[in-house]
Amino acid sequence: MGQIRILSDQVANQIAAGEVVDRPASVVKELLENSLDAGAARIRVEVEGGGRRLIRVSDDGHGMNRDDALLAFERHATSKLRTADDLLSIATLGFRGEALPSIASVARVTLETCCADGETPGAGTHLEVAGGKIHRVDDAALPRGTTIAVSDLFFNTPARRKFLRAESTELAHVTALVTHYALAHPEKHFELVSASHTIVSAPPVARTSERIYQVFGKETLGQLLPIAAEAPLERAGLPEPPPWRKSPDDLARQPGTLRLTGFYSKPELQKLNRNSIYIFVNKRLIRDRLLLHAITEAYRNVIPPTSSPVVLLFLEMPPEEVDVNVHPAKTEVRFRQQSLVHDFVRDSLRTALVKARPAAGFLAALHSQPTASPSLMPPAASPLPGAPNGASSLGAVPPDSDPAALAGLDTDTEPFHLTERVPAPVPGNLPFDARSFTDGQFREFPSQILSEAAQALLQPAAAPGAGECSPALNNGAAYSTGAAAAAALVEAEQAAASLNSLGSLKPLGQLRESFILAAGDDGLWIIDQHVAHERVLFEKILRDRQVERVQRQRLLMPLLVELKPEQMVVFARIAEELESNGFDVEPFGPQTLAVKSAPVGLEGPALERTLAEVIEQSAENSGEPMRNEELSRLRTRIAASIACHSAIKVNTALDLNRIEWLLLELGKTSHPTSCPHGRPIALLYSWKEIQRAFHRI
Ligand code: ADP
Ligand code: MG
């Protein structure tokens, strides 16, 4: 007898479940996506036991009739795809028809759905499935929409159950997921409730900034800047259907547009991993190496290479430009025009950074140390509910969190990472009537009240009990108005704090011959003279190198530098580029170099240190031929090193003329925000902060 057997549907579904469902958050993801695909305006997610005991997702979408409800649990049953050609232009989040049967094969599922199509209003279907088998189907009077409850996840697969982490970990993953989808759809009402505590409550708002305010709070919004860009998509060189297969539609179709909107962080905000970068492609949350790379490139020499920014990017493109069918959990995609998309993202972000030149606030910089943020988290799920809002919202690491677990968070393989611990949110009370926030009034409130308001709006609302409406639900409209006004206020403050005024500042003098003080309309500026000059030189060196007009000076006596054999190998590899940067260096014996001329401004020990530094930093990849990107990195490394070693030092007296010159030159650079190594250059003690500190407002 032959050995090969066709697997039963139940086993096939469990195998598929292995790919699609690996933890409660992935169940939530599939159910949320189904609700969004069903056109829901309001989605409520309830979980118990971190989702291990129960996940219930209710929506007010178009629902299903009885036949469809039964079919939905069949393998490869989907309403979103008919032919293979449809795969090329998927506009829905789901399309594989795998999620429901997979989930139902490893949990107990109850489905209540009603499509109320007008013929039989109110008629709905109640369906129970467990371990892949339908146990009950009844008619039921239900409102339009769908509720799916998934309980006892992995009840029949104990091996999988063992892989589930602590309840709090699973809840954190679920929270991150709901938060992300809430960000992508500000016009929809999202709620996440865990054991009768509201963790996320986001009534509809008009703009993404208001949604960010709703879920992350004022502080986070204050550190982010909006970005919007678009570029036409050229189709040159792309495979087209042959002429005989082209429909009139194909011929009429325009190449379309690549659009980018979202938010990016000011250079002062730095994270030690990439968990705070969120990328949505056509509203689908994805994890993509190519785009992560583009973002890192945009921030190169603006933040330290070891840090990551906080970025929320929404990319929109015609569906046929992106293949979403490359991963069972649909978290990876493939772009038809990879390098075009990559460069577009990198250049748009760069341009935005250069244009905004956001000034770092003195107080913000004081507290901004790169953190190993587990992820952006809504304040309610932060380690200290009710603590000053900002510290929590950008994912301050809980003091007792396991460093090993955090270190493991930056893998690119797992799509969603979160903090190890989500303490139960503390119910909060509204200190005043939220309805008093009308647009006009709100602006009049002193900022202290504003931040209290922010706290109140963001704290989990006291939920009187399961099933009852929490205050957050009753005051939905008022809350959204508050978010709009607060977001507008934060944006106004952001617009004021730019480095564009650098050139017109009035220099006051130096502090300990190291920091420049200067007065401007917007407040008091404190500028680090060394890094300011470093930035000026860095950009000049790169410019000169680009047009091959590097200024070099002959040394009176050649400088002899001793190298180890492996350093000689590295030197040989970068010698040509060093030459182009003004270094005339010749071998002088097997382990010695003779430097005959050097870039202007570099002498003696500084010259020696620069060479040693560049050689040391270029040690990686020394065997392979240099690629373009590597060459450009080498160029910036050399420029940064020369700039650092020839810039004005701290503890150096500067007269007012020289200070004025430096400020003027700094004002002309593209990134006066930070030195090439990512340290801040100029900090603003804003007029507002000064007034506040003197209790004048
Ligand atoms: P897919 O989303 O890939 O089509 P699923 O297994 O997730 O596959 O869902 C199967 C089908 O069930 C969907 O195509 C859709 O027609 C229907 N469905 C699932 N969830 C909902 C919902 N919340 N509202 C309306 N229809 C739904
Ligand atoms: Mg689906």
Query: What's the total count of β strands?
Result: 23
Number of helices: 24
- How many strands, what sense, and barrel or not for the largest sheet? 8 strands, mixed
Structural class: alpha+beta
Could you give the order of strands across the largest sheet? 5-4-3-6-2-1-7-8
Q: Tell me which ligands are bound.
A: adenosine-5'-diphosphate, magnesium ion
Which outline best applies? Answer: elongated
Strand content: 15-25%
Radius of gyration: 29 Å
Report the uncertain regions. 380-479
First-to-last CA distance: 88 Å
The helix content is 25-40%
* Average predicted confidence as pLDDT: 79
Word description of this protein:
With 697 residues, the protein is α+β, with helices and mostly antiparallel strands. It contains 24 helices and 23 strands. The strands form five sheets. The chain has an eight-stranded mixed beta sheet. Helix 2 (24-37) packs parallel to helix 6 (167-184), helix 6 (167-184) runs antiparallel to helix 7 and helix 10 packs parallel to helix 11 (338-356). The termini are far apart. Mean pLDDT is 79; it is low at 380-479. The chain binds adenosine-5'-diphosphate and magnesium ion.
What's the quick description here?
By secondary structure, the chain is α+β, with helices and mostly antiparallel strands. It is 37% helix and 20% strand.
Give structural attributes:
single chain, 697 residues, alpha+beta, 8-stranded mixed sheet, 5-stranded mixed sheet, 24 helices, 23 strands, elongated, binds adenosine-5'-diphosphate, binds magnesium ion
